[in-house]
Design brief:
Elements: H1 2-35, E1 50-54, E2 63-68, E3 71-76, E4 79-82, H2 85-96, E5 100-105, E6 122-128, E7 131-150, E8 156-166, E9 172-176, E10 194-197, E11 203-209, E12 216-221, E13 224-227, E14 230-231, H3 234-244, E15 246-248, E16 264-270, E17 276-283, E18 288-293, E19 296-303, H4 307-312
């Protein structure tokens, strides 16, 4: 009788322990789900209709990236400009595949260390058809050498992480990549920065119209180039064409600026390609250099440095042999 009772007792004990183990596992799993999300939000890159960015810098105006047909616009106040489609695609791809790697902080007291307080972080709101699909803040970035992998040249790869905080959640998450750099305070980073784009193999003639008697024509006949009818330095010509075939600007002119008259013109002609005309001006008073192009009619580029201006408006000496 004692052995039977003992066996029954053991069975009860084992059953009770098994029940406790199941409860503990379920509790831990539930607790883990509450403390560490498998996904921060769900973004369908094809369904996103707008992205609003509230800069971290005080006094900076918010901007909206708005879908416009097959492209995107940057809206700043009452102004609307074409956006850089490649930049938008990169943002959408990143958001659609964003997953948290770990929790860096669980309480508000950790926000400052990760530069993710309301006053130190960019606030981003993503909408799909008028409904918010993601609302988050981007914070500090961290860099480290990945000692486990080496690149082709034998050097170590750099690992980049960003910190993110989602609306309604006090926790700070770590995600892989450059997310925090994708939403800068400078609206120009989202705009179409194209100045010139062409296939240099199609170009047959470049006309440089400058003040005074410094104008000249660069023309191609077969594989040979000439400058004002005289043989040109083919290597220098090829180098110039390569340098301007895809030209991007980084600084846009102020909306209220009074532009000087455009006294510099470059006309680019070729086979099976539209005429491209680039106009340039130098404001001697403010020492600013301006460019505008038929390749991007919605932008006027303005800079205090002549680098872009000189890159496009080359002198005749560059092409002399």
């Amino acid at each position: 009788m004692f052995r039977k009772i003992n066996q029954k007792t053991l069975l009860i004990i084992f059953a009770a322990l098994a029940l406790v183990a199941v409860i503990v596992v379920l509790y831990d799993n539930h607790k883990g789900e509450r403390s560490f999300k498998s996904e921060l939000f769900v973004v369908d890159s094809a369904a996103v209709t707008s992205i609003t960015v509230y800069p971290k810098e005080k006094g900076k105006q918010s901007l909206k990236l708005s879908k416009a047909g097959k492209g995107w616009d940057v809206i700043i106040g009452s102004k609307r400009y074409p956006a850089d489609s490649a930049v938008i695609r990169n943002i959408l791809h990143t958001l659609a595949h964003l997953t948290p790697e770990r929790v860096a902080g669980t309480e508000r007291s950790s926000w400052k260390a990760f530069e993710i307080t309301d006053s130190a972080s960019a606030h981003v709101v993503v909408e799909q058809g008028g409904k918010v699909s993601a609302d988050f803040r981007t914070g500090k970035m961290s860099f480290s050498q990945d000692r486990g992998r080496q690149n082709y040249g034998g050097g170590q790869n750099m690992t980049v992480k960003s910190h993110i905080r989602v609306a309604g959640d006090d926790r700070v998450y770590v995600v892989d990549g450059w997310l925090s750099m994708m939403f800068p305070d400078n609206p120009a980073q989202f705009r179409n920065r194209l100045v010139i784009r062409f296939d240099k193999n199609l170009v047959t003639k470049l006309t440089f119209v400058y003040p005074g008697d410094s104008s000249f024509v660069l023309a191609r006949n077969g594989t040979k180039w000439s400058v004002n009818g005289q043989p040109a330095d083919s290597a220098a010509t090829e180098k110039y064409l390569s340098s301007v075939a895809t030209t991007m600007g980084s600084e846009f002119a102020d909306e209220g600026a009074i532009f000087p008259s455009y006294r510099y013109t470059l006309k680019i002609e070729g086979n099976n390609m539209p005429l491209i005309e680039v106009n340039g001006a130098i404001d001697e008073g403010s020492k600013k250099y301006y460019l505008r192009s038929t390749a991007n009619r919605d932008a006027i580029f303005g800079s205090a440095t002549p680098q872009l201006f000189n890159q496009v408006f080359a002198g005749i000496k560059k092409f002399n042999p």
